[in-house]
Amino acid sequence: MQWENVNLICWVVFTGLLFTRFWMISILYAIWWYVDRDTPRQGGRQSAFMRHWTMWKCGKDYFPISLVKTAELDRFRNYVAGFHPHGILTTGAFTNLCTEGVGFSSVFPGIRSHLMMLQWCFWAPVYRYYIMSGGLVSSEKESAAHILSRKGGGNLLSIVVGGVQEALNARPGAYKLVLRNRKGFIRLALTHGADLMPIFSFGENDIHDQVENSPGSWLRGSIPLFYDCRVFQYSFGLMPYRRPITTVVGKPIEVQKTPHPSQEEVDSLHQRYMKEVENLFEAHKLKYNVHRDQHLEIC
């Protein structure tokens, strides 16, 4: 189910209760919601209990989903990671970084994972606490600064750099990244002295088919419209295809803290980062069902 649909359902229930004898529940919740309104931009509210739900392991086994590290992470350092590609529903990003379905804390001991999400997703009643419990935080600058300024290190802040624009390119066999002009996360890493690293999720684009939305068509300006396989017939339906997703975490690029980075410094690190993304893809593509003649397209 898409985030937009879940938001709508939560709003319908919240509003509907106001017209029943349970109206006080919505009123009391609204008061608490107002008091707690800044939490998504102040590190969120992770729940180890939620991250360890059995359902996440079931979801991991369905595809299956796996997490691969190529280097150790220093628990005394903070990290900014670019996650590629977006896919339709960022299934690999959520499962690997916001749950213990694949055992993130065992793969990267001492590292606390956060994944940025659009601010409006935290407006939905109740749903906001569900997504925060997994480590999702607001995509605002204030939110990033709060996490990366924590003393002691051990924080991983992941950003799905390509966003919705990249999601519109997500279809099986596609490897097109929206990255060339996305430099905000680079400046963020420099400003806070957080090491920078790429994450590439092989198979992320393969679990859904997307309605044709070629550039210039009216569908290009909407959210991705997709269809999947049926439960008992593998042709058309609502269940994602059972195709493996392997999320590979690249080696960090050491970044020196530069409180006021120049455009030249941002551009230089951005060029290096794009090269590292390409290297990560090329180094692992043959292991994860990508043809040797297939290369990344960065736009």
Automatic annotation (TrEMBL):
InterPro entries: DAGAT. Keywords: Acyltransferase, Endoplasmic reticulum, Lipid biosynthesis, Lipid metabolism, Membrane, Transferase, Transmembrane, Transmembrane helix. It is found in: Endoplasmic reticulum membrane. Its main location: endoplasmic reticulum. One of its GO terms (molecular function) is 2-acylglycerol O-acyltransferase activity. It is a multi-pass membrane protein. CDD domains: LPLAT_MGAT-like (cd07987). This is Acyltransferase. It comes from Muntiacus reevesi. The lineage of its organism: Eukaryota, Metazoa, Chordata, Craniata, Vertebrata.
